[in-house]
Predict the 3D structure of the following.
Amino acid sequence: MSRKTVDAHDDSVRIIKKYPNRRLYDTETSSYVALADLKQLVMDHKTFAVRDAKTGDDLTRSILLQIILEEEAAGTPLLTEPMLANIIRFYGHAMQGFMGTYLERNVQAFMDMQDQLARNARGLGTMGSMLDASRHPFFDMQEQLQQQMLEAMGLKRK
């Protein structure tokens, strides 16, 4: 799986302009939007690109990181401090490119497995409702992926 870049010239890509006053303008709806609106686009699997209104620079990654930062501050964090520290250690490291690809592939595999389990659960009726409510398989898989990642990096679990 290669990393996808968003082509702003593609008609299916929704363009969001960021103005110097930090306001975000959705060119499709001709209205100002908030980070929460962009989060909803992500949740709805809508493709968008954020561009600096003045320079045209791509700000999409920066905005996505802002959304993650808000989510991390709002409740139970997804990314632990040790995990974030380990990610930071990979910047400038010879394995930086590998780490990004590794994380991307494993998150995608997790999402694919979650979708498959949900499809299987819907086919089981009442039993499916119980399985859907149970998140233990997801946590077990996450634990396994974390352990494999740590081992691949030569690190030990604390």
